[in-house]
Amino acid sequence: MRFGHIPILILFLAFPFSICAQQKQGFVLRPLSKGIGQTEIIGNASLEVMYAFNATDISDEQTYIDLQVLRVGDTVSKYYSRFVELNDSLRDDFIRKNPNVMSAPTVFYKAGKRESYWSEYQYTEIFTEKGEQTFYVQMPQYMGRYNSYYTEPLGMQSWELHLQQQSILGYVCQRATCHWRGRDFEAWFTADIPVGMGPWSFNGLPGLILKLYDVDKLYTWEAVGLRSGNFPIRKRKDIRFNKEKRDKVHRMLIAIYCCPVKLKRA
């Protein structure tokens, strides 16, 4: 049984990194925090899902690469890093309480197994609206001039549904698989929450994805929290992002992982 299909429009992989990239992932310095900065509320979400990204131990956030958040609204949704948000908000709080300080630390919230390092999965915010996704990619320290964004159609994966089930966060989840942009993925979704979204840019199943990974386990996401309510969806106004095409952004990401010094001097 297959559910939903849109052809892949571009040849670059969603996870394009070579052996060089995988070895060096997470070993370039994170951007210097400027706090939350100027934001505007562009929508509201009624559902918030927290995902552990690349966790060694799902019960210990210090073993995550990141804690990531999906906020689902009626007209717009957002996917972003909770670790980055917490660090920025604590920096803002420090500045408010110490208005005369000459300088402020850049790291306030230490969490995750590579807390001092950058990953594009942690420093990318994804907005989903009107059948499109826009990716805002913040580059590592001293490379802010390469901050970029690109927009692409909401590309639903071509899923095959299976009969296997398991329980995640108390929800009965069904197994689904797909081959997407060069990798084989396995997802577990719950039809009890009829939201066809999930971590990163995965979507198109008849229910919310609570667990997702590629078969090599290079990329893993698992929901560790879920709540309903009224959550603002904010967009930053104080960071400049250059409009680029997706393939150019991914070439830059590969260059950062493999040859960050050359890119910095370019």
Summarize the structure.
This protein has 266 residues and is α+β, with helices and mostly antiparallel strands.
Characterise the protein shown here.
This protein is α+β, with helices and mostly antiparallel strands and 266 residues long. The chain has a 13-stranded mixed sheet with strand order 1-8-9-10-11-12-2-3-4-5-6-7-13. It is globular and about 60 Å long. The chain is 15% helix and 39% strand. It has helices at residues 19-24, 82-97, 246-258, 260-265, and strands at residues 2-3, 39-53, 66-73, 76-81, 124-129, 132-137, 148-153, 159-168, 171-180, 183-190, 208-214, 220-236, 242-243. Residues 1-26 and 260-266 have low confidence and may be disordered. A hairpin with a 2-residue loop joins strand 5 and strand 6 (132-137).
Name the features.
single chain, 266 residues, alpha+beta, 13-stranded mixed sheet, 4 helices, disordered N terminus
Name the helix and strand elements from N-terminus to C-terminus, one letter apiece. Answer: EHEEEHEEEEEEEEEHH
Q: What's the pLDDT, averaged over the residues?
A: 82
**Morphology call:** globular
Uncertain stretches: 1-26, 260-266
Helix content: 10-25%
SSE map:
Layout: E1 2-3, H1 19-24, E2 39-53, E3 66-73, E4 76-81, H2 82-97, E5 124-129, E6 132-137, E7 148-153, E8 159-168, E9 171-180, E10 183-190, E11 208-214, E12 220-236, E13 242-243, H3 246-258, H4 260-265
Parallel strand pairs: 7-13
Antiparallel strand pairs: 1-8, 2-3, 2-12, 3-4, 4-5, 5-6, 6-7, 8-9, 9-10, 10-11, 11-12
